[in-house]
Design goal:
Layout (H helix, E strand, L loop, with lengths): L5 H16 L8 E7 L6 H17 L3 E2 L2 E9 L7 H11 L4 E3 L4 H14 L2 E4 L16 E3 L5 H13 L4 E7 L2 H16 L3 E8 L7 H10 L3 E5 L2 H13 L2 H4 L2 E4 L7 H4 L7 E4 L8 H14 L5 H19 L7 H10 L2 E3 L2 E5 L5 E11 L2 E12 L9
Helix pairs in contact: 2-12, 3-4, 5-6, 12-13
The structure holds benzoic acid.
């Protein structure tokens, strides 16, 4: 070093000391593994989550807690059988610090397993699988979205409140559909109703005709549905084409009409749903978010964009508390667990099991929006059944 100018030599020595102490690693970009669907019926949902996440980071000047982020991506195809391998591509091959994903409950349950076994921080920005913040809960697993039980329960409360007595449900036969229907049934039967039949078809099948014929024959007072993405748009069209929209009242988990209204056409108009977000919540926070999203992407935000945005906010709260030092994992996770997230949906905190405690809104679809009607259930917390944390 004797041939180098003194200032350069000192800088090199400091860098070398930092590298041997490991502290240098805390100034390198934080590695974020985005595991989302880029193909299949949930592809558009994955795209909105990624856009929302990156928008929040961009609004913070490209850094969270002073750390730049580096993204690694895997298309999970909403395919549970490939989920463990896909999660391991991010955790083992790319050595990400944080896993963010996904949309499909079955895939997310596998991600939670990988996260628990490798102690990787996981933030779920959509998938509602109840067990993620129930029996599979863990200090390193967080959710910025909802549990499947929450919007379902809200629809049940609304349907019973309207005086309906006999309901039928229709959904895809996988964790999200089953748990959403369970939530609906709990809310509906608590209010004096009775679910007379649950109809299901395999995910992501869209051959609804036989089931719609059965609904027409049984003539329930109300139908509850959980579908999302491309399949939901097709369901709304078919429900309308079968003449049921005019004859049998309908209520759905909000995913039925979020991001699907353009594709659904007239079948998507005037549909009542329950969810933790409504497009036209008239608060400075939501208005600013929607404006910023529209400016960045030339598209309107939806619930998936909000959940991605809030996943980044949650990580940001943790990183800010440890000044970007990701090695301080316990302090980072503790800060995430007690953060108040200033979400476009309204401020929320997390339950002990790390699931948002939030208002569930009744909405009605009009044009390309899901408009606020009323608060169906205030500050609804998932029961977090089976969590031993
Ligand atoms: C789920 O699989 O948990 C899910 C998928 C799409 C929308 C909502 C929930």
């Amino acid at each position: 070093m004797q041939h180098l100018p003194r200032a350069v030599a000192l800088a090199l020595a400091a860098a070398a000391a930092l590298a041997t102490s490991g502290a240098g690693a805390q100034t390198a970009p934080l590695k974020i593994g985005l595991m989302l669907p880029a193909t299949g019926t949930y592809a558009a949902l994955g795209d909105m989550i990624e856009k929302g996440f990156k928008l929040y980071v961009q609004e913070q000047g490209g850094k969270l807690g002073g750390r730049e982020l580096q993204y690694f991506k895997v298309d999970d195809e909403s395919e549970p059988s490939k989920a463990i391998d896909n999660a391991n591509k991010l955790v083992k091959r790319d050595q990400v610090d944080v896993l963010v994903g996904t949309v499909h409950s079955g895939v997310a349950l596998a991600m939670a397993r990988v996260a628990r076994e490798s102690n990787t921080l996981l933030i779920v920005p959509n998938a509602g699988a109840d067990d993620i913040t129930g029996s599979q809960c863990a200090p390193n697993i967080f959710r910025s979205s909802f549990s499947n039980w929450q919007p379902g329960y809200g629809s049940g409360v609304v349907a019973a409140g309207k005086g309906y007595k006999r309901a039928m449900t229709i959904t895809w036969a996988y964790a999200a559909g089953a748990e959403s229907v369970k939530g609906f049934t709990e809310g509906f039967e608590k209010g004096g109703g009775k679910v007379i039949k649950d109809l299901k078809l395999p995910f992501p099948n869209v051959e609804f005709q036989a089931l719609l014929t059965e609904i027409a024959a049984q003539k329930p007072d109300i139908v509850y549905a959980f579908f999302a993405g491309g399949g939901a748009a097709k369901f709304l069209k078919d429900y309308d084409a079968a003449g049921l929209k005019k004859s049998i009242p309908f209520i759905g988990a909000g995913f039925v009409t979020d991001g699907t209204l353009e594709a659904a056409g007239p079948g998507g108009q005037g549909v009542l749903t329950t969810l933790h977000y409504a497009d036209n919540i008239d608060t400075p926070r939501n208005n600013a978010f929607r404006k910023s999203f529209a400016l960045a992407y030339k598209a309107n935000a939806d619930v998936y964009a909000v959940q991605g945005y809030d996943a980044a906010q949650m990580l940001g709260a943790g990183l800010a508390a440890v000044k970007g030092d990701f090695a301080k994992r316990d302090a980072l996770q503790a800060a995430m667990a007690k953060a108040v997230i200033d979400s476009p949906r309204g401020k929320f905190t997390l339950s002990r099991q790390h699931n948002p405690v939030q208002d569930i809104f009744l909405r009605e679809s009009k044009g390309m929006n899901n408009d606020f009607v009323s608060i169906a259930v205030k500050q609804l917390a998932d029961p977090g059944r089976g969590c031993k944390m």
